[in-house]
Amino acid sequence: MKFKKMASLALAGIMTASMIAGCGSDAGTGNSGTTGGNTTETQTATQTADTGTETAAATEAPTASHDETYTVDFYDVAANFQGVQSGWYGKIVKDKFNMDLNIIAPQVAGDGQTLYQTRCAAGALGDLIILDNADAQECVESGLIHDLTDVLANYPNLMKYEKQIKEFNSMMGDGTKIYAIPLEMNNNGPTDYRQLHVYTYPRIGWDMYNEVGAPELKNTDDLLACLKAIQDAHPTNDKGDPAYAISMWKDWDSYFMENVAQLTKWYGQEVNGSVMIGTDNSIAPLTDKAGAYYKMLKFFYQANQMGLVDPDSATQDWNSIVSKMQDKRIYLYWYSWQYGFWNTPARGEEGVNYIEIPVADTNLYQPSDTYFGDGRVLCVGSQVSDENFARLMEFLDWYASPEGVQIQHGGTEGLIYTVENGKYVLTEDGFNRFSAEVAVPEDQGGGNWNDGNNQINQWIVASCDVNPDTNEPYGTDMWSSTIEKNQTKTTKEWSEKFGAADDVEYLKKNNMMTVVPSINIALAIDTTDISLIRSQCGDVIKDASWRMVFAKDDADFEAQWDAMAEQLNGLGWEDLVNFDTEKYGPMIEARKAAQ
Hints:
CATH class of the largest domain: Alpha Beta
Strand content: 5-15%
């Protein structure tokens, strides 16, 4: 891979994006928080992009025959489900395209790396493929990915994101072809953050927080003390089931303990491979004792010492966590989308919704909205027939269309939302779809709504992008009708106490958050030696991290950390850190250019 060329192309692209980022960015359109001028901005961006690839004139896409059912093998690193998509979403895809989506999920399969290598060796990873950037680059070089260069212009919904697609693909292969569609794109601008909530931050039930005196939280010690008081008062939920302040899960772990890695962002660092990248653009080894991985791992250890950690944490999976959240058996959330498993307007009026509680010494590492994509891409397998290729491209264009994106982020009209005076309004089932069992009518696929939700678990267009049919974001939490309905007892009392409309405003106003430009570039691929070192070191880090959470005392915790560091050094840790430091250098330079 021509890594230096790729880095320079990425930097040039980001610099172009940063110069146009302000176009129309202050033209608000009311409660939705959306902005005007996006069409002009996108056209300007497209005109100024120079990726070495000429845009083909749009022609009519090949007609795709739907006469025979097509079972699509969909290799998907994001999926938490393996098998054929069923339920209401499966019915929509079947009715529109006569397709069955057979999802192949490496993180569900058990040994994901072996599955990946076996399918690559067979020359057919999947008909549709979702991969992390680096793996996609490797698959392009191995000839496993279909060239989209000559057909992209035929698909108008994908072409709305031509700028971003071309910027990313300028870093793949020789930079002149289109192989991959970045995921989670938007047309709001490369440095914008429009969400109503930050991604990761401490969230506690408003009633329980007030019950224990609504204490000021200066640091994580205060947070643990608050959680201890809550758990002491509520050792079980209302059904009598055991409840804990903190519950974790293993099945999202990669080369480190994912629950710990997400919380490092509270203190200004994001874990990337063997290193942590800071809001100040610094790079430090994950094993740095002054760093956030050590700090947040010790946070979980201290929580366990206080009896606050669910003893099922080391053996349960994500599905178990969902069930416990729905039954209010967990008192600390740290992802914004966890709200959906409990919060509703009705519970907000009762004052029992979860909500952000500021911790004074945090400096949140908050990536901007993923204008250029989120680090994963969607590709078509090179082995598909011409007929199936036309069908897959038709599906992908729909997946990026206002209809497809609205279904993805807002569900189905009638059951999940209604249209009132041109605005989308959630129904009661819409508000409850993640926190309760919402029955789907048989003519729409039947079953439970959540079970039938899109199991692909990644989308081409982010929820913060604007639906041209409503001039509001696709995400239901950002609809003006939802914002109005969510002005409940919980949010009003929170705003009065903390002097801000929401957590984003509070953290910005108090200099407790740094918005970091999201940079989506193809990074250096691991060599064979580095891949082996990374795998071996990852196993050590995961195993040691989980053991340290349950260490018997402080001395045991420190001894295990030191033993981990020593073992890593014997496996080539220094070489891995040096590789990752060089690997992420271009990303940091591109980020600086975008600021």
